[in-house]
Amino acid sequence: MNCKNEFNQEVGAPIPEWKNKQYPVRVTLKGNHCTVEALKLAHANELYNAINLDTDDSYWTWLTREPIKNKSDFSQWVEHVISVDDPIFYVVIDHKTNQPIGYFALMRIDPNNGVVEVGHVHFSKLLRGTIMSTEAHWLLMNYVFTDLKYRRYEWKCNSLNVPSRNAALRLGFKYEGRFRQSMVVKGHNRDTDWLSIIDSEWHIVNQSIKQWLSPSNFDLMGNQLRSLNAIQNDNNKTDVTGIN
Q: Which residues, 6 or more positions from 215, have their beta carbon under 8 angstroms from its beta carbon?
């Protein structure tokens, strides 16, 4: 709740004893279906194979980079991105095959304000639309909010990238608005949609995703019994305390 200063001007809610947060590290996060771990050069070969299972380059349309067409160039890209501290790239390891099947990153890392963005999301067809996809995102969210105690977790995407925006909304991100003409990408204008989860919303998002991931939410064929959207809607209706 906002308050007023000595000049009777409204200012933001007080945050007592605020301290800068820890910088993310290349941590390993283990789930029931997958593990999220730091990208390494040793992942390059199998990761390249996984992301090139697509029969065309349509997945790359809204990404800021062009497709990488050979393993040597991909290995060079991996070698470069693992040498920097922002973004920090992570791979998703399938427990059944022990192989990397996608990657994403923590980026625009701002420990002074407790803000970080998840980006550079490239999930292969082996990962997209699976329970591992949701679990991987939850593992990284949980690291940011529960372990690092950040206040804000961001998702940005091309405004025309409807699948990306819908994926964020499904996970519990709230749409904040559109930054018009924010970038020029591959010779085309890009308007950028901004979405976020903040710390006061995390308890509902966390509870909802854990309920969705529960084995009791799936039948013997692995089909979900209740959608994540339905679970989140119910939890938002019943939550009156803001406490998990």
A: none
